[in-house]
């Protein structure tokens, strides 16, 4: 399956739950205010702006693989304080190492976490910290099962019989091992339940949760499918998010 682009405008509008998650992650990142920090998977730039608030004399290198997100972030962020790059994080290459790395709601979209952590390690100066959060083991399991049940029925089944999502909802133990192998120490990973009840259930589900499902369908079936999944989920729609938190330091000797 090829990587999908996003509707950056819709994501920016419905991503308040992700912003709230990001605020908790930013609280874990110690900053003086003059550093250069990598935002690994900057999305629309809404969270990057919060990171810039923590860096009154610093700079952000914001990276995303989705062209629409990069375009939106470039328009939203001050160009003298944020460098926005369109790159895959598994192929990340920076001109200079950064002082810290931050990421929110991104890593579960990447299948190869080993390669991801290797590239992040290479982007960080020795001793720099990585603070991140993403979907972890068990994330929105019930919603995804329901989406699969609807996908197995006609008229969707003929288009989705081979559907396999890109998600990588990892365990803390496996993540800690991959981080250590990539050159990180002081590694700590843990799961955190984070239920979300979106203000606009259909737009949130369509944009955030079902984008890859909808890509597999012909355009004339996409809205019908999204509406059916949300309807069967009940009201109000509550998504049982499980967040994988990551704190680690780029080793001084790796």
What does the model show?
This protein is of the alpha/beta class and 254 residues long. The chain has a domain at 8-139 and 166-198 and 240-250: 3-Layer(aba) Sandwich (Rossmann fold), CATH 3.40.50. It is 40% helix and 24% strand. It is built from 11 helices and 7 strands. The protein starts with 7 loop residues before the first helix and ends with a strand.
Mean pLDDT level = 94
Task: Kindly name the structural category.
Answer: alpha/beta
Shape: globular
Number of helices: 11
Spell out the CATH superfamily of the domain at 8-139 and 166-198 and 240-250.
Vaccinia Virus protein VP39
Distance between the termini: 35 Å
How is the topology of this model organized?
Blueprint: H1 8-14, H2 16-26, E1 36-40, H3 46-53, E2 59-64, H4 67-76, E3 82-86, E4 98-104, H5 113-123, E5 124-135, H6 141-151, H7 157-160, H8 172-181, E6 184-196, H9 201-209, H10 211-215, H11 219-233, E7 239-250
Parallel strand pairs: 1-2, 1-4, 2-3, 4-5
Antiparallel strand pairs: 5-7, 6-7
Helix pairs in contact: 2-3, 5-8, 6-11, 9-11
């Amino acid at each position: 399956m090829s990587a999908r682009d996003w509707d950056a405008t819709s994501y920016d509008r419905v991503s308040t739950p992700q912003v709230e998650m990001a605020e908790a992650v930013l609280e874990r990142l110690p900053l003086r205010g003059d550093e250069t920090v990598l935002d690994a998977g900057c999305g629309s730039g809404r969270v990057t702006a919060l990171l810039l608030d923590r860096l009154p004399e610093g700079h952000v290198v914001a990276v995303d693989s989705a062209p629409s997100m990069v375009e939106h972030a470039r328009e939203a962020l001050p160009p003298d304080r944020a460098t926005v790059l369109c790159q895959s994080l598994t192929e990340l290459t920076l001109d200079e190492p950064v002082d810290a790395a931050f990421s929110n709601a991104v890593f579960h979209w990447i299948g190869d976490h080993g390669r991801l952590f290797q590239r992040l390690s290479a982007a960080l100066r020795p001793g720099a910290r990585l603070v991140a959060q993403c979907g972890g083991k068990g994330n929105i399991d019930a919603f995804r099962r329901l989406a699969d049940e609807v996908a197995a029925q006609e008229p969707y089944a003929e288009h989705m019989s081979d559907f396999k999502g890109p998600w990588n909802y990892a365990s803390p133990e496996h993540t800690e091992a991959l981080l250590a192998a990539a050159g990180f120490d002081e590694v700590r990973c843990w799961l955190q339940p984070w239920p979300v009840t979106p203000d606009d259930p259909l737009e949130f589900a369509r944009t955030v949760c079902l984008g890859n499902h909808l890509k597999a369908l012909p355009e004339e079936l996409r809205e019908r499918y999204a509406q059916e999944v949300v309807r069967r989920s009940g009201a109000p729609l509550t998504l049982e998010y499980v967040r994988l938190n990551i704190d680690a330091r780029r080793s001084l000797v790796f």
